[in-house]
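User: I'm preparing a small set of examples for a lab meeting where we compare how different chains pack in three dimensions. I only have the primary sequence for this one, and I'd like the structure in token form so I can line it up with the others. Please keep the answer compact; I'll paste it straight into my notes.
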Amino acid sequence: MVFPVVFLKLADWVLYQLLANSCYRAARKVRNYGFFLRNQTPRSSSQQQAASLFPSASHCDVGNNIRSSQTLVCDILGVLLRAKTFFPYFMLLAFEAGGILRAFLLLLSCSFLWVLDYELKLRVMIFISFCGLRKKDIESVGRAVLPKFYLENLNLQAYEVWSKTSSRVVFTSIPRVMVEGFLKEYMAVDDVVGTELHTVGNRFTGLLSSSGLLVKHKALKAYFGDKKPDVGLGSSSLHDHHFISLCKEAYVVHKEDGRNNQSCLMPRDKYPKPLIFHDGRLAFLPTPFATLCMFLWLPFGIVLAIFRILVGICLPYRLAIFWGSLSGVQLTFQGCFPSSNSEQKKGVLYVCTHRTLLDPVFLSTALCKPLTAVTYSLSKMSEIIAPIKTVRLTRDRKQDGETMKKLLSEGDLVVCPEGTTCREPYLLRFSSLFAELADEIVPVAMSAHVSMFYGTTASGLKWLDPIFFLMNPRPSYHVQILGKVPPEFTCAGGRSSFEVANYIQRKLADALGFECTTFTRRDKYLMLAGNEGIVRENKIN
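Assistant: Understood. Below is the structure token output for the 541-residue chain.
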């Protein structure tokens, strides 16, 4: 009898919150909207008066290091980020950590979220996004997925003020676990005070902790006591006005500035820290409309991906290019076809940049000739559907060298010396093993573009990588062959294998407009997945 009683009480609370309270709030919104239409000019002027209580953030003096010893407080939503709603970030969390069904449920909630006030709306999104998920999965998304979208949405005006202060504290009603990793890793924040969530064991319940939803001005008083922070940044809402009024100086980041002013857009070269690695499948910011479009596309995308795979496996190269282009795959080729030396018994060694697992496939298609590819980690499924011969390496330098020499004696070989993929315009450190094996080396600059799904992952199922890439409406690949490496820049010409590897890395980076780094495969997987990125033999990963 205990469960029915608890269930009835829960149902009674839900009905009260969602029907009684929400309908009352909806009626007030409709009434206020009608009043707004009848009194548009007076209401607009009152809003302008409220917004003019504090100067704009663009008027904050940041010159001559006058703020080098000051403390700044602000929120992330509407201040550091130009976004006016946190829904896309909850959707990223739901999709990447909880799966497609949870993301679909969150999308369905949009049908009634608009009638809820801010607090209840936030509670609903938190419950759907977090309920039942493990702490480590949420922390992984916060570390590897969300920073990319936060950086792309940073407000440059707010960041210029932020960067000139020595101490920064963020107060936000958003769950702390969603923003703390980004703020500490990329924004050098001193502390983050946010909404705490209830957990049972190592899983979230989707409910708030006993402290409830964070109220910023109360949290600021509790954090600083009688001391006032030097600078406060807030949005144009009245709640933020109360929050920043507790600071010695207060400035407002207006919504109009964040959305329409090009000076507020953060260019990549001004990111507080370079974005080199990130994870997750979604390549777009999942606003409600964009997410709806994705779900409508999914059935067509799956069928289209299967069709494209069959085209690549079953048809000759010319027909595969023709039918692939008809299905939306864009393949562009630049450079000349390399000619093999008839005096050499070895094949040509193609050294490629690594964007997805399909790099060797698209190179083989562009050249209209069969190639053999070697890779460090390849799932059984990827081996099955690959239209070219693939050979897995063991990470034993001597054994891998012998394997590659044997393959070169049989024909042309493709190698990606970075050892793993990188989505951003950077090249990882090249392994020098390939330079010791061949004198005929042809660098190939590969670049790929997607609009909906990324075809790579560090923590997900790798056998789905080619499928996700081919599910994009118009995936594109650009193949640029740079020509053979001059003999004087090879090991036969007196260069060390490291010099050859660094030379080819620089040539490929210049061709693509990328930047060279010293990061390795191990660095990437430790940052994104907490492991060294090794696919176990007894698992399909």
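A couple of notes for your slides: The chain has 21 helices and 16 strands. Residues 1-10, 29-47, 537-541 have pLDDT under 50 and may be disordered.

User: Perfect, thanks.
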